[in-house]
Request: fold
Amino acid sequence: MEIKVGMADMNVCTAPDSIITLGLGSCVGVVVWDKQTKICGMVHVMLPDSTAISQNSNTAKFADTGIEELVKKVVAIGAGRARLVAKIAGGAQMFKVSTASPSLRVGERNVEAAKKKLAELKIPLIAEDTGDSYGRTVIFYPETGVYRIRAIGREEFEI
Amino acid sequence: MADLSLDTLSKEYFDVLKELGNIGAGNATTALASMLQCKVDMQVPEVRMLEFKDVGAILGGEEQEMVGAYLGVEGDITGSILFLVKKEVAMHLVKKMMGDYASDEFGEMERSAFKEISNIITGSYMNALASLTGMGIFLTVPDMTIDMAGAILSVPAVEFGIYGDNILLIQSKISDEIDIDGYFIMVPDMDSYGKILRSLGIIVD
Reply:
């Protein structure tokens, strides 16, 4: 079975299932995984920092609260907290415009924020495919730990 | 302005967008007809408020290949506007504009033609808003990308994400030989919502 994660959404998954999020742009798909129990979770974060925004009830929307919540969720279904490792993908800059809009750089800031949170939680980041200017669909397989990335006009690859 | 949120504004703003959609689509249809030199029909546009997780699905899936043009809005209000069409629709418009000069791929010329089309269409909408509100509104030079619907939509979604969990989408239906479903997503900055509604007499200080 393939478990779907929407925009500003999170879910958990155990082998042999896989977990997918479609069309990541500036958003980042953060996966935490426990190799031993083959349990993983994925969060599709849109914004870097929940504390900068008043409407922050949806924890999955932000890198800081999203990753924290995700870790709780995978541990709750049996993943070993100390064994967790992470892989991240996404954080593209889709458009370049001469406007001052800070949201155009949000991809980069999402990636930074995700890394910062993972470091704070002492979860090693073992692979990433971030930045650039194209959209990504990402699928994680907790059986093997493979994070598969597909994009329009590019060869599918794994990290 | 601190007490304004997208959820409380949405009803009034929704109606404004609908009216704007009507006038804008009318303007855009006229502009397109004269640019493409053919008869263009128009239907009443739809305005929808969608949750983030449902956004990709209505455009034919998050992985649907689309062409998006992104323009900054400047002047009395600030923000951004995204114009989005399916790739084959974009190619159809480009070919109509360029005639025999267009190839089947989005090269430099085709991209430039699409940007010009986006300029004309989004400009029609912004002119409608400017004349409704009496404000001066200008658009920056567009940038365009060809990518998955979900990835392109993440850009305005992030901007909406600062205010709430929904996105406002105007779907215009224009047709010449084929149906040209175009999607507009307008994201005024928070202060600009108030300015738009105030200038229309919806909010009274």
